[in-house]
Design a protein that fits this description.
The structure holds two protein chains of two kinds. Chain A has helices at residues 43-51, 93-103, 108-122, 137-149, 167-184, 195-201, 219-224, 229-234, 251-258, and strands at 4-13, 17-27, 32-36, 58-63, 66-67, 78-81, 155-159, 187-192, 204-209, 212-217, 241-244, 266-269, 283-296, 299-306, 312-318, 328-334, 339-341. By secondary structure, chain A is an alpha+beta fold. In chain A, the strands form four sheets. In chain A, strands 6-7-8-3-9-10 form a six-stranded mixed beta sheet, sandwiched between helices. In chain A, strands 2-1-4-5 form a four-stranded antiparallel beta sheet, with helices on one face. Chain A has a four-stranded antiparallel beta sheet with strand order 15-14-13-16. Chain B has a single domain (34-278), classed as MetI-like (MetI-like fold), CATH 1.10.3720. Chain B has 14 helices and no strands. The two termini of chain B are 27 Å apart. The relative contact order of chain B is 0.15. The chains are: A alpha+beta, B mainly alpha. The A-B interface holds A 51-53, 72-74, 78-80, 82-84, 86-91, 99-100, 103-104, 133, 147 and B 171, 173-174, 176-183, 187, 191-192, 195-196, 198, 279-282.
């Protein structure tokens, strides 16, 4: 177990293609960090740089107190879980787990002990003498986890480990991974593009965009106070409604604008922050047409079209809303709920 | 294609049976002929039923030979052929595995250039380069030796190319996983690549063995010492080398024996690659 320190880390491919730029991050011992971002944002590259599978072209990487820039993956004391598991197809589950230990010259009885313990923890004992192809997707995933666990490394690196599973299994494995990490307290880095996984798993989120860190923080902080337009749109489902100040007219909205920080020209409102009735405090008023009502059980989604510019607005409501498709409706939101942004800088203004 | 057409079935089977007969008949004739005494063939007819001299004939060709008729005992030739074929097979497999490994997994200057050079040699079979190769082998003093018989035939662009293609289908994560697991390049080759290639190795083994076994022109050129004659040369010498009429019953026995080892290799290796085929799953 160890902390990980990332200083000004960068990756430039041949031909001056920048995949990752000037990343700074301190990961505490035992912390569960989730790297999240759209595809191509550099999250996998960053993880693979930490693993040692990609060379580091700029900056420094410390695992524990040791600078590991030039070390082979095996020398960094990390373990990695791959998206497609990368189990050795010709080896039994036992040998898949034992291979890393064998290569490190562990004595036979120690290997046996560790493999059995790990298998027990992951409930794959009965599969130890099977080969990976005789296992289901979920079982393979467990074996892949086991191969990482059995080594008792300083850090786990997980590269979208759940994306090959079906939806139900994904939720189950998500819980198990979280419980496992809580119990073992091993520093973990988890890469995903699924924001639900990101929100539920991480102690801290690192939101990446085009090779840069957009925001680092606990899932709730990132959700409640997105620091940039990109994070605002990326985190949260359905995603945040963004309105241009210029499209909001009428005396109510003009009054509301006075209460917003200087430089604000984009107003963000989460779908669940929109109300059917005007609050007493200064507020935003949106005149819309109802396009679609989508009931989903406990909560429903209402898709509206803003009259002033035809923009789509998503609203999340509980119970049955007092609307009918095609009808007119005015919805409101208190100014205090607005996430104010500046479109030029892309940052938050308050 | 599930069709229930009675006449179609009959037609298809007729064609297939005819084809099989066409291929099997000469083999049958050879086996039958090898069981008759020498006199049978002088009458100019080829018997179609087995004779009673099988044991005698096979014993003669294996251990006694008829030197007057140009037929020394063939056990030595069989052995020579076997050694040459095995040396060529194993040599070809090891060299092509290693060069494919280098080309796919290592970055070195002119990597693509070397790949294309290897690939180009596909166009130069032994027969094309036979004169310069002979010169080289002769200068190196390898005439009349197993080294001379096998080494010039060992380099194989075909096998290198096939292994390269196969290695490129192995997901990159496999290499990365083994790197994280602490396996260096050689361990990766030995523990991961080789076991995964076993099907291809078995299939190529069969092809290469038969290729080596059937070599005719090259052994004919570089061996003058009967101790290094191979079986395929031997058959030819039996037919043309003697002073008298060829002893057809012995020639046929030799032919049957010469055809046997490749068949055995196929039978043995078949289990391996059928097993490999049914077990591979990606």
């Amino acid at each position: 177990m160890a902390s990980i320190k990332i200083n000004n880390l960068g990756k430039v491919y041949a031909g001056d293609v920048r995949a990752v730029e000037d990343i700074n991050l301190d990961i505490a011992d035992g912390e569960f960090i989730v790297l999240v971002g759209p595809s191509g944002c550099g999250k996998s590259t960053l993880l693979r740089m930490i693993a040692g599978l990609e060379t580091i072209t700029e900056g420094d990487l410390f695992i524990g107190d040791k600078r590991v820039n030039g070390l082979e993956p095996a020398e960094r004391d990390i373990a990695m879980v791959f998206q497609n598991y990368a189990l050795y197809p010709h080896m039994t589950v036992y040998n898949n787990l034992a291979y890393g230990l064998k290569n490190r010259g562990f004595p036979k009885d120690e290997i046996e002990k560790r493999v059995q313990e790990t298998a027990k923890m992951l409930e794959i004992e009965q599969f130890l003498d099977r080969k990976p192809r005789a296992l289901s997707g979920g079982q393979r995933q467990r074996v892949a986890m086991g191969r990482a666990l059995v080594r008792e490394p300083a850090a786990f690196l997980l590269d979208e480990p759940l994306s090959n599973l079906d939806a139900k299994l994904r939720v189950q494995m998500r819980l198990e991974i979280k419980q496992l990490q809580r119990r073992l307290k091993t520093t973990s880095l988890y890469v995903t593009h699924d924001q639900l996984e990101a929100m539920t798993l991480g102690d801290r989120l690192v939101v990446l965009n085009q090779g840069n860190i957009e925001q680092v923080g606990s899932p709730i902080d990132v959700y409640n106070r997105p620091e940039s337009l990109f994070v605002a749109e990326f985190i949260g489902s359905p995603s945040m409604n963004l309105f241009s100040q210029a499209d909001l007219d009428g005396p109510t909205n003009e009054n509301a604008a006075k209460h917003l920080p200087e430089g604000t020209d984009i107003l963000g409102l989460r779908p669940d922050q929109l109300l059917f009735e005007a609050p007493d405090t200064p507020h935003i008023r949106l005149d819309c047409k109802v396009a679609l009502y989508e009931p989903a059980g406990a909560e429903s989604h209402l898709y509206l079209i803003l009259n002033s510019n035809g923009q789509h607005v998503t609203m999340r409501v509980h119970g049955e809303p007092p609307v009918h498709e095609g009808g007119d409706i005015s919805i409101y939101a208190p100014v205090s709920a607005v996430h104010p942004f500046n479109s030029t800088s892309g940052r938050r203004t308050d | 294609m599930v069709e229930n057409n009675r006449w179609g079935n009959i037609l298809a089977h007729t064609i297939l049976i005819f084809g099989v007969a066409l291929v099997v008949f000469p083999v049958y004739v050879a086996i039958i002929a090898s069981t008759h005494p020498s006199g049978t063939f002088l009458r100019g007819t080829i018997p179609l039923l087995p004779g009673g001299e099988a044991w005698e004939n096979y014993k003669t060709v294996m251990f006694e030979g008829r030197s007057r008729a140009g037929t020394p005992p063939i056990s030595l030739m069989l052995w020579n052929s076997f050694v040459m074929a095995m040396a060529i097979t194993i040599g070809k497999l090891s060299i092509s595995l290693l060069s494919a490994f280098a080309i796919v997994y290592f970055r070195f200057p002119f990597r693509l250039f070397f790949f294309w050079i290897i690939f180009l040699t596909l166009m130069l079979p032994v027969e094309v380069r036979i004169v310069p190769t002979f010169q080289v082998v002769a200068d190196l003093g390898m005439l009349n030796s197993f080294a001379g018989l096998s080494i010039p035939l060992i380099a194989s662009a075909t096998a290198t190319f096939l292994f390269r293609q196969f290695f490129m289908t192995i997901p990159e994560e496999m290499l990365e996983a083994s790197r994280v697991d602490g396996a260096g390049p050689f361990k990766f080759f030995k523990d991961i690549l080789l076991p995964l290639s076993i099907t291809n190795i078995a299939a190529l083994f069969v092809i290469m063995f038969i290729y080596g076994w059937n070599q005719y022109l090259w052994p004919l050129l570089i061996t003058t010492d009967p101790n290094y004659y191979t079986i395929v040369m031997g058959i030819q010498r039996m037919v043309t080398g003697g002073d008298s009429e060829p002893l057809w019953h012995l020639v046929m026995a030799t032919v049957v024996l010469a055809a046997l080892p490749p068949v055995l290799v196929i039978l043995f290796m078949q289990r391996l690659f059928v097993k490999g085929l049914t077990e591979t799953e990606k």
